[in-house]
Design goal:
With about 425 residues, this protein is α+β, with helices and mostly antiparallel strands. It has two domains: about 210 residues, PmbA/TldD superfamily (PmbA/TldD fold, 2-Layer Sandwich); about 210 residues, no CATH class. Helix content is about 20%, strand content about 40%. It contains nine helices and 22 strands. The strands form three sheets. It has a seven-stranded antiparallel sheet. Strands 12-11-10-13-21-20 form a six-stranded mixed sheet, with helices on one face. A hairpin with a 2-residue loop joins β20 and β21. α1 crosses α2 and α3 runs parallel beside α4.
């Protein structure tokens, strides 16, 4: 069953609106123990997902239902799926909205990346073989997944767009040991292509993390204290701003952000600017169009703590009356005005490893259990572990400071160093 045949069946059906999402993947997978290949495989799969929409007679509601139609299906089997979806859609109603219309704005047809799965996999293997390991810190095992994806989206309004994009992931297990103890650290690295330099730097940092965790001292109660983030945990902080710029959160009244109005009247720290980006180098989410077929582009969402626009899929953009909206996957929090020297001055706790770091998008609560941090106090630097960090973003936004320098973590780019002032640090005992 081809996608074009499914489209033909949908056009003849009783659906008021419909969409078809096609994704074809060519993938390579490798599994290594130490640096010895244990097994590998190649896979090729294709998925076609159909969504039908049923509009009420008074056009006040839209019901929808989705299901995959297998490429091995016969025409009768595909018709049965569509008929079942039409029945189910009558019971899953939402306020009325329309689908993304065909636009005069051209969607790029050139791929955003040069995609060669075998070359990408080779880069990963060579990068991981080039790690500076020691007798006490080394790589236990790793898995590599590389995909070349072809994606097509069609809807009943005349949209028919296509793209190719890469996706890669490496999962790495690292061990560190001394005479008495051994610990294991897990890391996952996602991207489009393989950034060999970044991968090598991050894994060698993890080897150092393992070594330092073996010699930590229990963290004492610090009360209200400054905290510095200089790794991927920083993304969680800026994700709070990004989530509250979502049309879905705004429609459901979970976000109090207003366009043209400062999010904090008495902010004394650096002010945050958030952008949606069509492309970030080596991102696994570089797309020409979103899940509804809307063209992607660069867009300033918030500038210097002032929201400029909300983003969202077609449904919630329609509810808020947003024009030319889309659902981005790449985001950037642009740099601040504070120097690295100032951010790392005085007494502070630089947190490197947390068991689970969360910033609640609705309440703004910050929470995480500390596994490794460096306590900078009275001119000394002490590796510590245990205890927790807590606070709330509604307080943090008043004094937060961050570096001009940026760092990229897959589909997110944010300041390389971020300092939160006067958050709560509870000790291990």
């Amino acid at each position: 069953m081809t996608t074009d045949k499914i489209v033909s069946l949908l056009k003849k059906s009783a659906a008021d609106m419909w969409t078809v999402s096609e994704k074809e993947t060519e993938a390579l997978e490798f599994y290594f123990i130490r640096h010895k290949l244990d097994q590998n495989r190649r896979r090729s799969v294709k998925h076609v997902t159909v969504t039908v929409f049923v509009v009420s007679e008074d056009k006040s509601t839209v019901g929808s239902a989705s299901q995959e139609i297998y490429t091995t299906s016969t025409e009768d089997e595909a018709k049965k799926v569509i008929d079942s979806l039409l029945m189910r859609a009558k019971y899953a109603k939402n306020p009325y909205f329309t689908l993304q219309p065909k636009t005069d704005v051209p969607v790029d047809t050139e791929p955003l990346e040069d995609i060669d799965p075998e070359k990408i996999a080779k880069d990963f293997i060579e990068a991981l073989s080039d790690i500076d390991e020691t007798k006490t810190e080394d790589i236990n095992s790793y898995e590599i997944f590389v995909e070349k994806n072809r994606r097509r989206f069609i809807n009943s309004e005349g949209v028919d767009v296509f793209e190719e994009y890469p996706y890669s992931m490496a999962e790495v297990i690292i061990n560190a040991r001394d005479e008495k103890h051994e610990i294991e650290l897990y890391r996952m690295y996602k991207g489009g292509l393989c950034d060999r330099k970044y991968l090598k730097e991050e894994i060698e940092k993890t080897l150092k993390t393992g070594r330092d965790r073996l010699v930590t001292k229990p963290l004492q109660n610090l009360g209200s204290f400054d905290v510095v983030f200089s790794n991927e945990n920083s993304k969680e902080i800026y994700s709070w701003y990004i989530a509250r710029l979502s049309a879905a959160m705004k429609f459901h009244e979970y976000s109090d952000f207003e366009t043209g109005k400062k999010i904090c009247e008495d902010a004394a720290g650096d002010k945050v600017t958030i952008k949606a980006l069509k492309k970030i180098e080596n991102s696994s989410e570089n797309h020409l169009f979103d899940i509804d077929g809307s063209p992607t582009r660069d867009l300033v969402l918030m500038e210097e703590n002032v929201p400029k626009s909300f983003y969202g899929n077609r449904q919630f953009a329609y509810y808020l009356g947003l024009k030319d909206s889309f659902l981005p996957k790449n985001f950037e929090a642009t740099g601040g005005k504070t120097s690295l020297e100032e951010l790392r001055s005085g007494d502070y706790l630089e947190i490197m490893e947390l068991s689970d770091f969360q910033v609640h998008v609705m309440s703004g609560d910050i929470a995480g259990e500390i596994r490794l941090a460096y306590l900078h106090k009275d001119g000394e630097v002490i590796p510590v572990s245990g205890g927790s960090v807590s606070g709330n973003m509604n307080d943090v936004i008043k004094t937060i400071r961050f570096s001009k320098e940026l760092k990229t973590y897959d589909c997110g780019r944010c300041p390389a160093v971020t300092r939160l002032y006067n958050v709560s640090i509870t000790g291990a005992e």
